[in-house]
Design goal:
The chain contains 15 helices and 14 strands. By secondary structure, the protein is α/β, with parallel strands linked by helices. The radius of gyration is 22 Å and the shape is globular. Bound molecules: adenosine-5'-diphosphate (ADP). The record marks 179, 240 as: Transition state stabilizer.
């Protein structure tokens, strides 16, 4: 079965076509600037990428282009759209309703819509993609895979904010956590790497990309995670502040004459590495500036590392120990410097890094020395593969039920 995985934003969409259960990627692509005359469609493999600029006015049109490209004579990888047996959508917020992936129905869509208040930038865009796909491939079952679902195992004392309880009862104000599909995938790779079942392991998973989150995973279940009701809470990120004193909001708004929307925009888009360095939220750019002696880039990177390390310490305390520390996503997979800095202050836990494995190895691997009390791993994340697996499994289940 071919499974099309979609990640729809408000003006962009990413896609990847998998052959399942072989788990091979047949092709992938991205369309940006949807809604404009000069939308850009890039597709193909890393070695052979094609690019096309043309007017694409909405998501339905964009998805029609995707299907046309997948089946085209020149660049196509399938002979007809009928080969697509399932579509898997990344959906950001599943609230308390979804603790696992589900086949999309009118009721599921209604729940996703209802959760838009919790993720106003993401859920409406995810829904746009779902509804457009229903029009483009009306007979293909679609599956929603939620970023929040993996964290639904958090106990109440970890997910509640110490606020009047009525806010939770009335409005579901609580911590949800994100990047769940990535943390779940990485945790699923741990047993093969460390030769130990997840049921006996305490794992701390660090997803360090543009967004950053740290998750405590005990016996394969998320018991705490650094992002909260929204992806703004937790560690410092590329452009997001992470944890702050809630009282500073009013102070800054009054002193700077900001509206609440302006403050929210500052915290999400102009803070973090970008806010401190004044240069960029992109770690590669920060590292380049730091290497050239930029004081603010050096400070930004030191704060970034420190705030991630603090969460690791907190989660070691939360679980009364840690057996595996794993790093994933753009920075986690590619910055030996950040990993080395974080690990250098965890020696009190018996952690010892293998310098060569950290600096020179590639791909999925252990980077701690054999004597280390904690196994440290690098695991390239594969959220799309996880979505393809869930979509495939659910649709196979549907077909069995129909038989
Ligand atoms: P997203 O969260 O958008 O999926 P990624 O997981 O791709 O993002 O991570 C993007 C981040 O990874 C950027 O800050 C980028 O600079 C960083 N990154 C990518 N390659 C490297 C590298 N070789 N060294 C350090 N950082 C890197």
């Amino acid at each position: 079965m071919k499974v099309l995985v979609l990640n729809c934003g408000s003006s962009s969409l990413k896609y990847r076509l998998f052959a399942m259960p072989e788990e091979s990627v047949l092709t992938k692509g991205v369309i940006e600037k949807i809604g404009t005359e000069d939308a850009i469609h890039r597709y193909g493999t890393e070695s052979e990428e094609s690019s096309l600029t043309e007017p694409i006015y909405d998501h339905r049109e964009a998805l029609s282009r995707v299907v046309a490209t997948l089946t085209s004579k020149q660049a196509g990888v399938i002979s007809s759209a009928q080969e697509i047996g399932a579509v898997g959508h990344r959906v950001v917020h599943g609230g308390e309703v979804f603790s696992s992936s589900v086949v999309l129905t009118a009721e599921v869509k209604e729940s996703i819509r209802a959760m838009s208040a919790l993720a106003p930038l993401h859920n409406p865009a995810n829904l746009l993609g779902i509804e457009a796909m229903e029009e483009v491939l009306p007979n293909v079952p679609q599956v929603a895979v939620f970023d929040t679902a993996f964290h639904q195992t958090m106990p109440q004392e970890h997910y509640l904010y110490p606020l009047p309880f009525v806010l939770y009862q009335r409005h579901k104000v609580r911590r949800y956590g994100f990047h769940g599909t990535s943390h779940r995938y990485c945790a699923s790779r741990v047993p093969a790497l460390v030769k130990h079942d997840l049921s006996g392991l305490k794992v701390i998973s660090c997803h360090i990309g543009n967004g950053v989150s740290v998750t405590a995973i005990e016996r394969g279940r998320s018991i705490d995670t650094s992002m909260g009701m929204t992806p703004l809470e937790g560690v410092m990120m590329g452009t997001r502040s992470g944890d702050l004193d809630p009282s500073l909001h009013q102070f800054v708004m009054e002193r700077e004459g900001l509206s609440f929307d302006e403050l929210a925009s500052m915290l999400n888009k102009h803070s973090g590495l970008y806010g401190i360095s004044g240069i960029s939220g992109d770690v590669r750019t920060i590292l380049e500036a730091r290497a050239k002696g930029s004081i603010r880039a050096t400070l930004a990177f030191a704060m970034y590392e420190y705030r991630i390390r603090k969460y690791i310490g907190a989660y070691a305390a939360a679980m009364n120990g840690v057996d595996v520390l794993l790093f994933t996503a753009g920075v986690g997979e590619n910055s030996p410097l950040l990993r080395a800095l974080i690990c250098s202050n965890l020696t009190y836990l018996g952690l010892a890094l293998d310098r060569e494995a950290n600096e020179q190895g590639t791909g999925e691997r252990i980077i701690s020395s054999p004597a280390s009390a904690i196994k440290v791993c690098v695991i390239p994340t594969a959220e799309e593969l996880m979505i393809a697996r869930d979509a495939h499994a659910l649709v196979i289940g549907l077909q069995r039920d129909e038989e």
